[in-house]
């Protein structure tokens, strides 16, 4: 039995996702990059390298992480620091700028080391909430049509857009229509285009065949485009891991409350930020099964509540609770708020054995502070 709390990445499920993505690459003639902002378990990079074309980074540290493997590393940031841009250029296949100000400031330091791209804003909102909508009013992400400068493209070889969040192929169709309407006239001079992330390709409802069709038709319209990239993060680790926690105490304050050795605030922050209700293995909604509990975190934050769940049997101290789909946007965003121990990162091998890739200790918490 593994020690809790622990993120467990299931190797077999991860590889199934990668096989779907690899088939897409082969059928559509595109390249898939893992977005490290969503999935960054470098202990599984050997497996990812077998199937994917590279990684996409949001800055220097992620670029260095991606550079652990000899694949393509694409880097985009809303703005770059002067003392980091040279190293980023050295280790990146492509550097994407968010504005013409940044392009003009740094292009001469990048052009001989990496390909240069621009992120544009297609102006099509489809994300489920404004927090995750790069095309929302007053967005800082991407150059709008009104601010685009055709006379500044001398060193630019590609355009990048990212407007989706956990969405299906139909959302890409709408976004691509807006992208071509606003920026299609500039594509004749480009060598590559990046469709960004947010594509839920490995989700059961996703129409991969339609995505293949979309990419092929796009490439036929622009035969000069050598490479089409997609950079999903969630689709790589979707449903390929879980967070296992233990019940520490059960109290009653108008309803039964189980206090766990994990935390929404610290260990699965999107539960509160998005917000959403994670699935719990073998549990139902409140009142659906015989015994209902509110699952609460171990921090002092009053709102550190994961949700209300029901179970066939009453919970007791020492029971294990498994939160599904926790390989993405968890350990990359978690914190040691309240000095709560960070969950270990564990790999469940295809033979059923467990490999503890990383355990965290007091020193990890201490050394982040001063």
From TrEMBL:
Protein name, as recorded: Carboxynorspermidine/carboxyspermidine decarboxylase
Catalysed conversion reaction: carboxynorspermidine + H(+) = norspermidine + CO2; carboxyspermidine + H(+) = spermidine + CO2
Protein family per UniProt: Belongs to the Orn/Lys/Arg decarboxylase class-II family. NspC subfamily.
GO MF term list: diaminopimelate decarboxylase activity
Pfam families named in the record: Orn_DAP_Arg_deC
UniProt KW Lyase keyword: yes
NCBIfam families reported in the protein's UniProt record: nspC
GO terms, biological process: lysine biosynthetic process via diaminopimelate; nor-spermidine biosynthetic process; spermidine biosynthetic process
Cited Gene3D superfamilies: Alanine racemase, Lyase, Ornithine Decarboxylase, Chain A, domain 1
Domain annotation Orn/DAP/Arg decarboxylase 2 C-terminal: ranges: 129-326
EC number: 4.1.1.96
Alphabetized UniProt keyword annotations: Decarboxylase, Lyase, Pyridoxal phosphate, Spermidine biosynthesis
Amino-acid positions noted as binding substrate in the UniProt annotation, renumbered to this chain: 234, 270
Cofactor: pyridoxal 5'-phosphate
């Amino acid at each position: 039995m593994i020690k809790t709390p622990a993120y467990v990445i299931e190797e077999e499920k991860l590889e199934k996702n990668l096989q779907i993505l690899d088939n897409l690459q082969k059928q559509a003639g595109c390249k898939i990059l893992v977005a490290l902002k969503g999935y960054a378990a470098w202990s599984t990079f050997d497996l990812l390298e077998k199937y994917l074309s590279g990684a996409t980074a949001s800055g220097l540290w992620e670029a260095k992480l991606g550079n652990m493997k000899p694949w393509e590393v694409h880097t985009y940031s809303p703005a770059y620091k002067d003392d980091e841009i040279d190293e980023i250029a050295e280790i990146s296949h492509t550097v994407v700028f968010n504005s013409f100000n940044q392009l003009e400031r740094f292009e001469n330091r990048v052009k001989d080391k990496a390909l240069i791209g621009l992120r544009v804003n297609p102006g099509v909102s489809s994300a489920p909430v404004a927090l995750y909508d790069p095309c929302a009013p007053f967005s800082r992400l991407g150059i709008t049509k009104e601010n685009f400068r055709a006379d500044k493209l001398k060193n630019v070889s590609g355009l990048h857009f990212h407007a989706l969040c956990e969405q299906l192929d139909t959302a890409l169709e709408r976004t691509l229509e807006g992208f071509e309407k606003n920026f299609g006239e500039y594509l004749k001079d480009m060598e590559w285009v990046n469709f960004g992330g947010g594509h839920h390709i490995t989700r059961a409802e996703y129409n991969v065949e339609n995505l293949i069709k979309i990419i092929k038709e796009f490439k036929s319209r622009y035969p000069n485009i050598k490479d089409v990239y997609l950079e999903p993060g969630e689709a790589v680790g979707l449903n390929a891991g879980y967070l296992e926690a233990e019940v520490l105490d059960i109290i009653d304050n108008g309803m039964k409350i189980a206090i766990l050795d994990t935390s929404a605030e610290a260990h699965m922050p999107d539960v509160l930020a998005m917000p959403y209700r994670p699935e719990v293995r073998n549990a139902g909604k409140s009142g659906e099964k015989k015994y209902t509990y509110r699952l609460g975190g171990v921090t002092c934050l009053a709102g550190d509540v994961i949700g209300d769940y029901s179970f066939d049997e009453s919970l007791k101290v020492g029971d294990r609770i498994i939160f599904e789909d926790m390989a993405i946007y968890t350990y990359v965003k978690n914190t040691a708020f309240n000095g709560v121990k960070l969950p270990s990162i564990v790999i469940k091998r295809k033979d059923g054995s467990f490999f503890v890739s990383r355990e965290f200790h007091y020193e990890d918490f201490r050394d982040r502070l001063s």
